[in-house]
Design brief:
With 95 residues, this protein is mainly α. The protein contains five helices and no strands. Helix 2 packs antiparallel against helix 4, helix 3 packs antiparallel against helix 4 and helix 4 crosses helix 5.
């Protein structure tokens, strides 16, 4: 049977190692932090002929990638913006 003191020491060591592993150096670039999107970037991106062509061809993933290239936005923001643009284009064509 494992004594509680050994179990406590193992838990403490795991906790300390977790703290050290989770710290990051200040000069480390985090890849999931996206540059802030400006309204001008967004307006230019939604008027981009290549982006509109990709949406017309129903190539949503390529359109999201293109939007990210143009604006520097993160994946979720880009996906939301492209899907919103796709819905507005669908509404405009149905009217």
């Amino acid at each position: 049977m494992v004594s509680y003191s050994v179990l406590a020491v193992v838990a403490l060591v795991a906790f300390v190692l977790g703290i050290f592993a989770s710290r990051r150096r200040p000069d480390t670039k985090v890849i999931w932090e996206a540059a802030p999107r400006t309204s001008a970037d967004h307006e230019a991106a939604i008027a981009d002929p290549e982006l509109l062509s990709l949406l017309a061809q129903k190539q949503l993933i390529s359109a999201i990638k293109r939007y990210r290239e143009l604006t520097g936005a993160g994946l979720k923001d880009s996906k939301d913006a492209v899907e919103s643009l796709q819905r507005s284009l669908a509404r405009a064509s149905s009217q």
